[in-house]
Amino acid sequence: MDPCSPNHHPALGDRATSNLDTAETVVVAALRCWVAPIMHPQGHHPAWQAVFQLAGVAEDASTEFNLLMAILAHSAQRMLEVRCCHCPSLGADEIAMLELVGSLQEGNTLGALSVLSDWLPPATIGPALLAAKRFSEAMSAAGLRVTASVGGEEAWSAVPQGARLH
Prior knowledge:
Blueprint: H1 22-39, H2 48-55, H3 59-75, H4 92-105, H5 109-119, H6 122-141
């Protein structure tokens, strides 16, 4: 059986895509559609740009999202877990992408840097952060806000709990 059959169900502990809100669905759908031709080049795949058009997100969001994804595709330090378009649950890096967007929309640059530093070498974090920030702003302008810590875990933070900064 194909591990991503449209008939399979989320594993115990996985976050189901059916529980995503509109903003989260837009981000995950665009991410999966962008990655699909890389994962399965021989197949027919939905256009990731259409996700933003259907959601009423400005075209510049597509440009910034594409830039972010190109940086990830060319510079990621490890294989990112992005599932196929019809998978009923989220992969860890899809949750991290939601965390990235949510953190930036909330003004939490440290949270965004934490996500990006897990994926990218230091030299590429700056350009990726700028693209992610612009993408997140375009999503906000369209009324699509993602809440950070969507995975049910504590917010990503570069500051250990209980630490004091003064």
